[in-house]
Amino acid sequence: MPHEPRYIAVEGPIGVGKSSLARKLAETFKARLILEEAYENPFLPEFYKDRARNALKTQIYFLLSRYQQQKELAQQDLFNQITVCDYLFSKDRIFATVNLSRDEQLLYEKIYRLLDGSLPRPDLVVYLQSEVGVLIKNIKKRAIPFEKSIDTPYLEELAEAYNQYFFSYTETPLLVVNCTKIDFVKNEVDYQNLVKEILSTKRGQKNFVALGGSR
Question: What's the pTM value of the predicted model, to 2 decimals?
C-alpha cells in the first residue's frame, strides 16, 4: 500500500473508539501497535471517586507513563515499520486543563515542557469526535467498574476541551472524523473510505464524512 504515513496517532475523548480503530489500522497496515496503559494507573479508580482530590497524582502518572512509552518508541526505527498509536502525547494536556486546579496546572506544565521536546511527532493524527450520548453508551458497554461514575457533565467538558484543542492544532497533519453514526470496526465500507482518507491526508486539516452506513 503506497504512501502510508509512518506514524499514525488516533485521538478522541473517553469511549470514542480509539483503541478499536488503532487495532484495525495496525492490522491493515501491518503496523506496530502502541496502546496506552490507561488501566494500569493505580490512581485511576480513586480519581473517578473524587476527581479534585486525586487529579494531580493521576495526571502525573499518566504523563510519565506515556512519556516512557514514547521515549521507547523514539529509540526504534520509525521508518522500518509503520506505527499506530491510540493516543497523542499532548493529549495529556487536554485532561490537565479539565482536571487540575490552576496551581496544579502550573506545576504540571513545568514537568510537561521538560519531557515533550524529545519525543517523536506523528505523521498524521486521526481525531475521532462523537456525541456524548454515544460515548456514554460505549463506556457502559465495556463495563469497567470504576468507569461507572463517569457522568455526562464531565464527558461534555472533556469533549469540548478536545474540540478546542484540535480547532487550532497545527503540529501535524490532522484528519477529523465524526463517528457519531458510524462504527468503523463493523462497517467495512466506511472503514475502507477512512483508510483512503488517511493515505491522502498529507498536510493541514481535513474532515472525513462517512457515507456508507450507520451504527
Answer: 0.91
